[in-house]
Amino acid sequence: MRRSGAVATDDIWVTGTIGDAALALMQIEYIGVPAVEAEWPELLNRYRLPQPRTGLGPALVGLASAMADISDGLLADLGHICTASGIGAEIVFGDIPLSKAANDLFERTPDKRDDYVARVLTGGDDYELIFTATPAATAEIERRAARCGIPVTRIGRTVERLGVRAFSADGDEITVSSHGWQHF
Q1: Where are the extended beta strands (E) located within 3-123?
Q2: With a threshold of 0.90, does the pTM exceed it?
């Protein structure tokens, strides 16, 4: 599976939940490892013991048009697909699947919501998959994912306009200072 097969009008999908590892690291910065172990063990576990979706990737060969793992950050890895494919992407933050622990963190500390949103979009180490596919493939993607026991969620679409943009549920563009980890 390559990053370079996406075309404008494809749907953008992710597996599992996004942002747990990055939120764990953020909480470590705020309150330290012992407190995170006590208050947010699910987030810390996702960072310490990632569960790469190696079973679903091969099941999507011939169906997904492009794919990457989310190791550098959601926006960065989607950007890799877009750059390789010569397209852009638009995603909606409210469509990104968050874990119960991440939702709880958002609810318990609403004053840090903007920081958490940025970290979900740019933090890495989830090792979930991000992939694109034609909208006509939706039912088959869901069938194959169910057979593998891996949840999938559509979070946006590819577009002709270059670049990756994220939007709030009310349509406002979300700006972040960095799209994620840069290797070079």
Answers
A1: 11-15, 66-69, 88-92
A2: yes
